[in-house]
Amino acid sequence: MSSNMRINKKCQLCNREFIAKTTVTKFCGKDCAKIAYKAKKRAEKISSSTRKYASRVVDPKDRVQELQLREFLSVKDTALLLGCSSKTIYRLIEKGTINATNIGDRLTRIKRTEVDHIFYQQN
Ligand SMILES: [Zn+2]
Questions:
Q1: What is the pLDDT of residues 69-88, one digit of tens each?
Q2: Which domain holds residue 73?
Q3: Distance from the CA of 47 to the center of ligand 1, in angstroms?
Q4: FRET pair for 26, CA 20 to 30 Å: which of 1, 5, 10, 47?
C-alpha cells in the first residue's frame, strides 16, 4: 500500500503541505503526529472524566422531576420526593399510610399516586 504512492496533503496540525506515502497519513512528520496524538489522548481523558463526573452528580431538582414521571418508586426515591428519610417511609408503610408492594424479597415498590394519597388522608 505504501510503496510508491505520492499524495499531496496538508498537515492537520501545522497546515504545512507535505507529500504523504499513504492515504491515511494526516501529519507532515513524526513531531506533528506525536503532538496531535498527545492532544487527542488528553482530550479523551478530559472528556471521559467530565462524563464520569456528570453521571455521578445529578441535580436533585432533575432527579425529583424524573421521579414524578415514574409510576413506581423505590423507598429511597419516595423519601427523596417527600424530603424525608427512608426510615420514615418504612414506618409509613408499616402503619399502612402508604401502600407498598414487595417484589421478591427485598424490593419494595410504591405507586407514585400513593405519595399523593398521604396528603389527601391528612386533610
Ligand atoms: Zn505538521
A1: 889 999 999 998 889 999 99
A2: 60-122
A3: 25
A4: 47
